[in-house]
Amino acid sequence: MTKNTTIALTVINAALFAFIMIYERGTLSTTETSERSGQVLSAFVRDQVERVELAAGEEPPIVFVRERNEDEEDGVLDLGTWRIAEPMATEADDDAVDSLLGALEWLTPTRTLNDITAEDRAQFGLDAPRYTVRFTVREQQVEVVFGGEAPAGGGLYAAVAGEDRAYVVSDDILEELGHDLAHFRSKELFAGFHATGSRRLELRGGGEPVVLQREAEGRWQLGGPEVGWARMGMVDGLLR
After folding, report:
1. Spatial strand order in the sheet of 109-113
2. According to the model, what pLDDT value does residue 213 have?
3. What does the longest C-alpha to C-alpha distance in the chain come to?
4. What percentage of the chain exceeds 90 in pLDDT?
5. Which residues are within 8 A (CB) of 36 and not within 5 positions of it... i.e. 6 or more apart?
6. Which of 133, 203, 186 is nearest to 161 (CA)?
7. By the 8 A CB rule, do 124 and 177 touch?
């Protein structure tokens, strides 16, 4: 084998390795999907979900997008935080979104109906679903719809796009799907506010505004209508 041939094979192997790494980074492994056996959503890996759309009937969806830090330390995946992208851009309540993800992750069928027809889908209410959820995991988008109530034994009909089967699931999932935008919004009045970063406060109401300014050494000072040092305990309590 010549030197040029060896170099060429090395380059080809490196290119194939890079392709495989990039491809697998965007797909779910066999192990990840096999661990989901028995669940409605076999492709659902909560930590890998990057985007979720929740729509009630024909209403515009609520869209959640995960924001992660750019750097990962010691190979530990940064779970990031959730933001609402639509119908308005705002901070999301991470606990509320996580509760929705948990309900989807453990969505277990009580019955599975195989080889359903178009007539079956219409009868089950899956053609005009009550709720539609789309999520993106490892660049793969999955859609699950929730239709009408199952007459025998209770529950709710559900189906995953691209499958020729329907599921009957517990109607407990409606508790998570039925929330509105206000439920998923951050409950913080001033999202991202940190008291330690405050440099100036202005309190208005009834008379002249009271102005408080933080000095370089960290002490608070009254800047109007009177001048002097402020009581630190009161200012800290106000910031909290």
Report:
1. 90-91, 81-86, 62-67, 49-56, 131-137, 140-149, 156-160, 166-169, 109-113
2. 87
3. 91
4. 48
5. 42, 43, 44, 45
6. 133
7. no
What 8-state DSSP symbol labels residue 9?
H
Question: Is residue 235 within 8 Å of 223, Cβ to Cβ?
Answer: no
Statement: the pTM of the whole predicted model exceeds 0.90: no
Q: How many CB atoms lie within 10 A of CB 102?
A: 12
Whats the size of the chain, residue-wise? 240
pLDDT tens column, 141-193: 999 999 999 987 789 999 999 999 999 999 999 999 999 999 999 887 766 67
Residue in this structure with the two tokens 């940190």, named with its chain if needed: 194
CB atoms inside a 10 Å sphere around CB 159: 24
Q: Kindly report the average pLDDT of the chain as a whole number.
A: 82
